[in-house]
Amino acid sequence: MSPRSFLSPQSLCCVPKEFLVPPCPQDLRGQLHPIVLAECPAIVPRCLWGGRPYRGTPSLLRPPLGSVFLHHTLEPARPCRSFGACASAMRDMQRFHQDTRGWDDIGYSFVVGSDGYLYEGYNTRGFGVGIVDDFMATLPDPDTLALVWDQLLPCTVHSGHVQPDFTLRGHHQLSHTDCPGNALFQEIQSCPEHEVRVVPAEQGGN
């Protein structure tokens, strides 16, 4: 059975990490974000969702970073409920960012799919988390928010990529944009950094 066949919402939670991060083609190995090797939620690597190569010479961020930026993807503006749909959305976003915007790669470090799993992106300028959908008027579902608040953000701290006293920001606090949407930004404002549950690594967690 190929690694791709494991990646369904019903089975991904039970897949050992070595199947989630299989060997990738040589031209993609240097682009894997180092956080995929940390004790984190299940992360679908670029080589499984069909990511193109990075354009140019990739550079690594200098951790630990002081901020995490949240985004909504807007396009696609509807949830992706399966691996196939989310992988397609990732390819569409990367194509738009590279071919239309002229960027080196997809603009998010990670994307939270509506299937409940994280998809690896690439960003050499900061730590950005995109959530699939449009959140101008509505919020992500509770499970999606819990994946970000209770799993991904603590993971970034435990792995040393983000400072323990990091600041959580919306994209429009960095540049002129409506992203991450009014509803999601209000949620960010109502969730002070100390409420993001970061359990000391030596104590573990549930």
From TrEMBL:
GO terms for molecular function: N-acetylmuramoyl-L-alanine amidase activity; zinc ion binding. GO terms for biological process: peptidoglycan catabolic process. InterPro entries: Amidase/PGRP_sf, Amidase_domain, PGRP, PGRP_domain_met/bac. Belongs to the N-acetylmuramoyl-L-alanine amidase 2 family. This is Uncharacterized protein.
